[in-house]
Structures are given as structure tokens and as C-alpha cells.
Design a protein that fits this description.
Elements (H helix, E strand, L loop, with lengths): L1 H7 L30 H6 L6
């Protein structure tokens, strides 16, 4: 999906970035008993900011 969007938007000066994390503590993962990152920690990582 990411590469398809990248190809589709290549001529429009649009940057497409795929962010793939392990488990982030969200409603979607609330039933999993595994270590999770907080959404805020993920968003604050320097590699996630532009």
C-alpha cells in the first residue's frame, strides 16, 4: 500500500511514509497482554517527526 501510494503521488510533491511499530497502547491492542509503547512516546520519537 505504501509503495502504491508513493508511486501514485510521486508527481505531486507528496511524501509518503510508512510507520511500522510493534505494539502501541491503543484501543486496538487493549486486550493484548504484551509490552506496549505509549502513543505519545511514539509520536515524540525524532525519527517520526519531519
Amino acid at each position: 500500500m505504501t509503495n502504491a501510494l508513493r508511486a501514485e503521488l510521486a508527481g505531486r510533491s507528496t511524501l509518503v511514509v510508512g510507520a511500522h511499530f510493534a505494539c502501541v497502547d491503543t484501543a486496538m491492542t487493549e486486550g493484548l497482554d504484551v509490552p506496549k509503547s505509549s502513543p505519545g512516546d511514539v509520536a515524540e520519537r525524532p525519527s517520526c517527526r519531519r
